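USER: If only I could read backbone structure tokens as easily as an amino acid sequence. It would mean a lot if you studied the pair and described how this chain folds. Here is the record:
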Amino acid sequence: MLIFLTALFCLIAGYFTYAKFVEKLFGVDPKNPTPAVTKCDHVDFMVLPTWRIFLIQFLNIAGLGPVFGAILGALYGPIALFWIVLGSVFAGGVHDYMSGMMSVREDGKSLVSIVEKYMGQKTKLVFLIFMVAFLLLLGAVFAMSPAHMLEDVSGYPFLTWLVIIFAYYFLATLLPIDKIIGRFYPFFALLLIVVSVGLIVALFISGDSFYPVLNFENQHPKKLPVFPLMFVTIACGALSGFHSTQSPLMSRCLQNEKHGRPIFYGAMITEGVVALIWATLGMAFYGGSEGLLATISKSGAGGVVSEISKGYLGELGGILAVLSVVVLSITSGDTAFRSARLTISDYIPNSKKFWRRLLISVCVLSGGVALSFFDLTTIWTYFGWANQSLATIVLWTASFYLYKKSKPYFVTFIPAVFMTSVCITYILFDKIGFRQDITLSTIIGIVAALVCGGLFIYTHSAKKK
């Protein structure tokens, strides 16, 4: 219990200390007019209340990551808590804040436009293709997962639920942001928070040991390496590239730059708390990694959510928990497609006209529908690596941004170097990549990351001279 409370304290303290430092380093100016004011179109650009934006941002970035990812990360044991805390404070929070505030300073433009400005035209083209493909992939995952869960709960066929979900996605992608997303999402976010808090309180009351095997060694039953796998498995609860696709959506609704820290950084810390809760629940409920792996192998992470929720909150609580996870998935899926529409719209003239907006929405959703016919497990496997690779690119972009603004860039540079080593090692070692020996993969990954970091420093030092 003390370890959990210490980790929780560190997350909260990180928001009030390191986040404030990053905000000061960025240099917010409350007098600067934001895109929500200067470009208000009552579709994508409009001022929304700060509390509402915070809850929407939290729900948008959460998805299944802080639940499913944390449960899978719990297989490694309490060592997972280090990445949730350190990742949220020093990587994820910085990543989300910079991606949101860079968009605010660049007139609410999507991430691709920011990459083009600070990393060049060629990088932009590659990144545009990668970004749109990634968002369609993610939207398909977040349609298929809840469709399967709703099939299990209701008995209605998977295809029926898939059609209903995509029909909803179409409306949420097309309509003004205040019609569905701005109106209902804050309440869905509160549902997730209430369920998560209710579960950890129930764990306190139950008297179960929070961490039955209390050591910080690798406890994964299959002895999968902590580096790099854990840092890809626990994504949305620590660092996730998907967040950078969502922050520009809310940057278009921000009334004042000073609200960036509670909205972008604060939402990431809140998600870290949710991940901390679910990782702890996964370890406590099953008494260790062996029992947790057995349930995952049998019924997936969704089955773990159902068992834990029913075990601590009863039948009704279990239903509410499953519904909250379904809502998490769906609400992140629709904003993924909306972000894809906005990214493409930045490069199409008069894209704000209704018929062009409609056409782009149809094309985007069609791509998602096509991907939903592939195997979910395969798509999810590739999503993990693509997600962290996207986060790495954003951290490098933020480093270029800070450098060109003559500001200290170490807050983004250090996590960028670290995540470069993670992503390169992962693709060399994992079955989706080159399946090389873990030692060789790690050496190459670390060396490559250090070379990238060295080139960045050398190039900019040479330019200064």
